[in-house]
Write a structure and sequence with these properties.
Jelly Rolls; six-stranded antiparallel β-sheet; three-stranded antiparallel β-sheet; 1 helix; globular
Length: 106
């Protein structure tokens, strides 16, 4: 019985990772394997002043939804304040980054 509990804990532990360099904690809600290549869903919490470096996804569209507070989403040179409940989509190949102190679902 203890083995089943240990296996479940081990299977769940990988779903959340922390990046101290960017101040991000990422929890995977759905993976590409679980959605058969359709999408990846993550909950991301970013420490004050943290966030990912500017980046672009060559083959994926990124969608964001504000869960708490306001997320400053940068699309190239354009800044978009994303409040709770608002959503934004970044087309594939477009450079993006975000800065927030609140939870964001990506």
């Amino acid at each position: 019985m203890g083995t089943n509990t240990d296996t479940t804990a081990a299977q769940v532990a990988w779903r959340t990772i922390a990046n101290p360099a960017s101040g991000e904690t990422i929890s995977f809600v759905e993976t590409v394997e679980e959605t058969h290549g359709d999408r990846v869903v993550m909950h991301i919490t970013v420490a004050p002043g943290g966030g990912p470096t500017p980046h672009a996804h060559r083959h994926q569209t990124e969608a964001f939804e504000g869960l708490a507070g306001t997320v400053d989403l940068y699309l190239g040179e354009r800044q978009i304040a994303l409040p709770v409940g608002a959503a934004a989509t970044v087309p594939q190949g477009f450079s993006t980054t975000s800065v927030t102190t609140r939870r964001l679902r990506r």
